[in-house]
From TrEMBL:
GO cellular component: cytosol
Organism: Stackebrandtia albiflava
Entry keywords, A to Z: DNA-binding
One protein family per Pfam: HTH_31
Protein's name in the database: Helix-turn-helix protein
One term of GO molecular function: DNA-binding transcription factor activity
Coiled coil: none
Start and end residues of each HTH cro/C1-type domain: 37-93
Length: 99
């Protein structure tokens, strides 16, 4: 009988691969941005189509973005912010020093 690898050990092994941590962080950022746009759209009681029209993009692009499947450019984020009557704020934040 083959030894089953636990999810934790598989994840740890995959995260040790070159570039994995960066890809994981990019996916996390995409998810967080998408969730925030989704929340703002719902607060405005808009459909994805309404937001798409207001932001000058397609409904499918809004859907992909809200699902965390795409990271938009800064100009697209600016159009979404304007459409949602919010301001875009992009900043660099110091990370805690290790050790």
């Amino acid at each position: 009988m083959a030894t089953e690898e636990s999810w934790r050990s598989l994840r740890n092994r995959r995260m040790a691969e070159p570039g994995a941590a960066d890809a994981y962080r990019a996916a996390e950022v995409a998810y967080e941005l998408g969730a925030q746009v989704h929340r703002l759209r719902i607060e405005n009681r808009w459909t994805q189509e309404q937001l798409a029209v207001a932001a000058g993009m397609t409904q499918s692009a809004v859907a992909r973005f809200e699902a965390g499947a795409a990271v938009p450019t800064i100009p697209v984020l600016a159009r979404l912010a304007k459409a949602l009557s919010t301001e875009l704020s992009v900043s660099f934040v110091d990370r805690p020093k290790a050790g």
